[in-house]
Structures are given as C-alpha cells and as structure tokens.
Fold this sequence. Notes:
This protein is α/β, with parallel strands linked by helices. Helix content is about 30%, strand content about 25%.
Amino acid sequence: xxxxxxxxxxxxxxxxxxxxxxxxxxxxxxxxxxxxxxxxxxxxxxxxxxxxxxxxxxxxxxxxxxxxxxxxxxxxxxxxxxxxxxxxxxxxxxxxxxxxxxxxxxxxxxxxxxxxxxxxxxxxxxxxxxxxxxxxxxxxxxxxxxxxxxxxxxxxxxxxxxxxxxxxxxxxxxxxxxxxxxxxxxxxxxxxxxxxxxxxxxxxxxxxxxxxxxxxxxxxxxxxxxxxxxxxxxxxxxxxxxxxxxxxxxxxxxxxxxxxxxxxxxxxxxxxxxxxxxxxxxxxxxxxxxxxxxxxxx
Length: 298
C-alpha cells in the first residue's frame, strides 16, 4: 500500500498518516508500505521524530517500509534536503537522496539513542551543541541536562522500551529550541494501568507527571522526572511541554495570570504508537532554570 506524507508535517498533521498505517486493532495495515514524500513542503522537528518512530514501530512488526521521493529535491529550503541533512534517509532508505548532505549547525541530526547511553549522549553531544548554539558555558546547562536525562529514565520506566528517537532544532529568529523524543514502546498509559487499571489514557499521562507518583515497585527518584522537567521548562523557562502517548495528550504551558504551570489533558481519537514528548525551550531565559543538580542520583 502507499500513503502520502502531508505537505506540512508536524504533531498536528500526523493523525491522517498514522490512521492510514495503523488499523483499529493497533496493527499495521499491510506488510509493505510505501511512503510518498513528493507533496512534502515543510517538516518540523516533531515530524522528523514521529516519522522515525513510525518506521521503527513498523520495522519491529515485520513491515517493509519504502520511500517515494521527488526528482528535484536539492536546496537548503527543500524538506527532502533537510531530512537528508538530518540523516533520516541514510537510516531508513539506506542511502542519501541528495548530493553532499551535511548536518546543519542549527540541528542535532536524528539519533536513535539507547536509554542506557542517554547521560553520555546528553553530556557529549547535546550539551556541546546547545552551548555552541546559545554561546553559554556548559556549566550553565547542568540542570537542563539532568531534566532531559530524567525523560530518558521516565520513558524507559513507563514505556518499557530501551531506544528512543531524538531530534532537536534551534530557531534563532524566535528564540526557541525544539527538542522531540519518542519511543515505540507500550506507552505511558499501558504501564500506569498496571497499578491504576481504571484510568483512561489522558488521566494516566496526567498522573505520570505528578510529583510523588511512580508505576515502579522500587521507585528511583520518586516523582522527579516528568514533573521536574515540566516545572523547570514551563515555570522557570517560559517554555512548553507536550506529551502524547497512545490516546492520551497532555499540554503544559505557563498561566498568563497565575504564572504557574497549567496542564491540559485530553483524549485523542487517533492512536500514537508509544510516547512522544516535545519540549520547547525559550533561549532568552534559559539561564533562569534553577540549579537542581544535587537533587538527583544517577
């Protein structure tokens, strides 16, 4: 079967693509699926991670994924060139589709990172890239590194998956950095229901971000991970956090009047295979993030 990638691909436009590939029983609709990229005009960091996660999910279920792309796909503003520069096609087509693809300084090329290697990746790649982008010392990024390290721990604990897809991009014009992490595991709700079986997906995602809650029988850093990430990114940095796992969605933003974190949970009619976490950091207030380094034990 053949499916079309939307012209503008992000977390808002992914649902038609996902429903065209995944049936109502949450299985792949075919054993061979061709992804048509000829209409793609723009793709956001979340779109890159979502596609990678979908390809990994299909591969894990024995599906062969093929790629259809336009003849003319060169140029910095071309989304195929952007994906090639981001290492997407080398990973999923086994080759580059453009001439001389090069990583862009404003992006971290697509990575599949084992969660056990998360702290090393954060320290050696992510922190150096972020330091260069913002022209601030590595020591100022210790708390951010810890926050994202806790994302690795939380997805591993909740999703029971050992590998995550990661992509990041800096937008200097809007003073933002978008960082998206996704995995193709069972999802946060499925794991939360082991201890709270009555919860719907949106309620499960909400409770997973509550300080003091754990789905583990031997809690480590009880309640620290997602709650601490949200508090630091949203409350201290004025950024935002979006989580979509299975049918559950949680959006976290800063209240205009209250100046506190506001969480909005909802159920979506479309299924996301695993967990997607999109974090938007505001670069002009990134050093407002509190130093919490001593609160955690690795």
